[in-house]
Specification:
The complex is a heterodimer of chains A (115) and B (115).
Chain A lengths: L2 E3 L4 E5 L4 E3 L2 E3 L4 E8 L5 E7 L5 E3 L5 E5 L4 E6 L8 E9 L8 E2 L3 E6 L1
Parallel strand pairs in A: 2-12
Antiparallel strand pairs in A: 1-4, 3-9, 5-6, 5-10, 7-8, 8-9, 10-11, 10-12
Chain B lengths: L4 E3 L2 E4 L5 E6 L6 E7 L5 E8 L2 E5 L7 E4 L6 E5 L8 E8 L9 E2 L3 E5 L1
Parallel strand pairs in B: 2-11
Antiparallel strand pairs in B: 1-3, 3-8, 4-5, 4-9, 5-6, 7-8, 9-10, 9-11
Classes of the chains: A mainly beta (115), B mainly beta (115).
């Protein structure tokens, strides 16, 4: 079984400040972890992934995420928030078991950057 | 950048009618997926499709649902007899190659409204 928790429905950050969007996961095997962003009336846009290797992964638009195996977390971060970062963010996990293709998503976190 | 395209963007259908949602995946991708998002809820996996057959499906994907790749470019989701609870945003996705570490790329979705 695989699951994802995003504990915050809403995160507000002042423009220019660092931001963090939290995600924890649960899988039977090894996790493949993803972050997606959704803008209004649009689909899910891939931001970054963790598969193996360096725990800090970098993605699009200056976002990065840190994989922490002991805490089963994969928090999304950005050093300096922009107003254009305001959107709905989804964390997703895939168990690395062969034949498992489905992504399991969290409930999403609405990020609002305040000018 | 290549995109997954979905048509129509909005479909309104009477309960009990059949509906077909269409998707054109990214051209060199080999794995195809359908997800749905009921308003206010999380994105849920429906089905994955590879080599002209279903590779995995969720408990949501019952006998009223079917998928097809009728030609080299389209990937369709058919709901035979729609119910009110089928109202949702339906997302098509595709990924290249084999392996669970490949990110899935999503279309902008079809909003299905059942009356």
């Amino acid at each position: 079984a695989q699951s994802v928790a995003q504990p915050e429905d809403q995160v507000n950050v002042a423009e220019g400040n660092p931001l963090t969007v939290k995600c924890t996961y649960s899988v039977s095997g090894n996790p493949y972890l993803f972050w997606y962003v959704q803008y209004p009336n649009r689909g899910l846009q891939f931001l970054l992934k963790y598969i193996t290797g360096d725990n800090l992964v970098k993605g699009s638009y200056g976002f990065e995420a840190e994989f922490n195996k002991s805490q089963t977390s994969f928090h999304l971060k950005k050093p300096s928030a922009l107003v254009s970062d305001s959107a709905l963010y989804f964390c997703a996990v895939r168990d690395s078991s062969f034949g498992n293709e489905k992504l399991t998503f969290g409930t999403g976190t609405r990020l609002t950057i305040i000018p | 950048e290549p995109e997954v395209t979905q048509t129509p963007s909005h479909q309104v259908t009477q309960m009990g009618q059949e509906v077909i949602l269409r998707c054109v995946p990214i051209s060199n991708h080999l794995y195809f997926y359908w997800y749905r998002q009921i308003l206010g809820q999380k994105v849920e996996f429906l089905v994955s499709f590879y080599n002209n057959e279903i590779s995995e499906k969720s408990e949501i994907f019952d006998d009223q649902f079917s998928v097809e790749r009728p030609d080299g470019s389209n990937f369709t989701l058919k709901i035979r007899s729609t119910k009110l609870e089928d109202s949702a945003m339906y997302f098509c996705a595709s990924s290249e190659g084999q392996g669970s570490h490949q990110p899935q790329h999503f279309g902008d979705g079809t909003r299905l409204s059942i009356l």
